[in-house]
Amino acid sequence: MLVKSPGFALVATLTLALGIGSNTAIFTVANTLLLRPLPYTDPSRLALLFADRRGQLEGFSYLRYSLLRVQTRSFSGVAVFASDTFNLTSRGNLTGRGDPEQLSSARVSANFFDVLGVRPELGRAFGANGDQPEAKPEVMISHTLWLRRFGAEKDIIGESIALDSRDYTIIGVLPSSFTFSELRANVDIWSPRVFEHSLASAERVRLGVGYLYGIARLASGTTRDQAQAEMDVLNGQYQRDNPGRPDVDPNQKVVVRDLQQQVVANFRPALLVLMGAVGFVLLIACANVASLLLSRALGRKKEIAVRAALGASRGALIRQLIVESLLLAMVSGICGILLSQWCTHMLASLTLSNLPSMAGVRMDLPVLAFTVAISLASGILFGLTPALQLSKPDLNTVLRDEGRGSTGSRGRNRARSLMVIAQVALSMVLLVGSGLLIRSFVRLQTVNLGFDPARILTMRIALPPTKYATPQQQIAFYDRVLKAVQTLPGVQAASISSALPLNPSRQSPMLPEGQPMVPFGQRPILNIQTISPDYARVLRVPLLRGREFTDHDGADAPGVAIVNEAVVRRYWPNDNPIGKHILLGQRPQPMEVVGVFSDMKNVTLGDDASPEVILPFPQLPWPLLNLSVRSAEDPRSLISAILRQASEIDKDQPLTDVRTMDDVVGSATAQPRLTMLLLGVFSATALILAMVGIYGVIAYSVAQRTQELGIRMALGADPGDVLKLVVGQGLGLTLTGIAIGLAGAFALTRLMSSLLYQTSATDPIAFAVSALLFTAVALLASYLPARRATRIDPTDALR
User: Fold this and answer.
1) Is residue 623 within 8 Å of residue 465, measured between CB atoms?
2) Radius of gyration, alpha carbons of the chain
């Protein structure tokens, strides 16, 4: 029967494949990120440990880790990790094969992989004492690095590589499937020497600087609530046993979070919204196919009547029609799987940089079972109404060809009208949601950044602490790089900074003048950054008061600082900030505020600027800095020249993460842009399907009412009257659906409030524009068959 109606079968298959394919693609992503267990042994018992200070999650100190490791009973194992970088240099048995490069790395405790339950593909994991200072320097490498840099050589185990000009022995290669998303990077080098972290000098460890995060495995029979209760007890013990320690803060405690939930916390809301959207698309597609089946029913009345006259029961007729629908659904499901494979690959390529776990997105048995299930459910859903309509024919009327205008026909019209109203209502919800995201994204794009990102090139430099151990060595290197870059043709200005805009900088306890003297651990936590004198010139940040830094603000000069407006608003709203002082860390001498910068977006585009204190680089040396260069033309043209200058200064020092400031800003909008794009595509798909549904029901109505319209025209109705009559029918269905859809959108869009920026979930403009757009589309869909109705020849119609 389907082969005899190839046009119907093709349209129905493509319509349903669109709904099934989009659902399968989004479910594939959701299954990987939300539902599929993490690739560790018994992942449900894994937990992340953070320091929570007034609701802000951060790292905890090495000394707190030492306490947890010894005294906790809630965990069978506690490991810690911290992100770092290594420079792969030209020394060692293996590393002379390529240019120096900077590798993303992680410092982990020796039991890190034991806690996770991960075994290397080659070699062995770290020994029990591998993180002790006297242990031999060892590393494990990622499967990606093993393939890319070392050609997948099996005998690499036991060979040495030079990292930060120090020899390390490769003891293992991790499996290709291993990822650890909490590090927010694709880590290539894993080292067990946590205490030797490049940011964890002995002084910083003594002060209790928090740079570690924990991964722990719950002991048998222990819940996360019980573990949290023990953490609270140990936190109180730590504060009692260490009075006056810098990291003792009554507002800070170690919290226990579920690993799976924490990994997906940032994008769970957007993914759930998209899953709801594709569910609507599937329902609209089903309604559309059901409308097609009802239209086809007009041509099958005699066939069904003959089957009934020959003895077919109503149940047999329903089974016949449902089987046809299921066959159509399964063919659509196969096409949907092919479509979803393409969509999933596209999604993975779009979001891989932001979501490392997307690399594992693939169709597996649960996804395949889901596709089969929704295909079968769709077949039953869209086939049930036509089957019930057709399975009870009036044999006398149908077989004598007198069925036109019968009650059954009116019933089918009513069913088709209800389906169109449902399509319009569901499409309106999607359209309003898409409109809200578009308005939010436009506002996000037009937000005042506080700086000018045009024609700026940025790159990251991480100096190895073994080669640049002292502040004087770090200062000398960066001074040479800045002077060399500033002399290049086309360079207008160059500077270094410890953070880039829209990338949170470090934080530190500080005490602004005028605040009560409290212990170190209870002082306000402010962002802190270190820069060179031309920083404001490169970013074109307005200086509101005072002066900028100069070359005279060196390491031996009196301590000075520049603050942003957020600091002034919080601590000196009615005073002149110039000349005020800020006490930083354990420094005996406070820093004098000499200038005020305009606020820049220093966290995210959607958040207000955080209070930030800025110091001259020589007064707070830092091995990990960003080089920013403002160019007179395209900044990418300077890349090779800058890399060449840096290589001449130190041939083993790579410059990494080379990108323009426009790319930095663009990455900040990547997730909302992707969410908006996907919901926009689904909304457009729903709009097209609804338009087809409206067109189909009006065209079907015109075909059914040919005789009626002919009589009207014979009695004097002009084409305009017929046009208004037919368009009015379509407009009536549309307005009913729009009213229902607006009510549904008013209730449902509140669930996406967390995805919006400076846009209300009930924004009247988004609602009004969506309604007007849908009305215009409905008018077009109704006009086409109405125009055809005006061309009916009354003589032919009456005949």
Assistant:
1) yes
2) 34
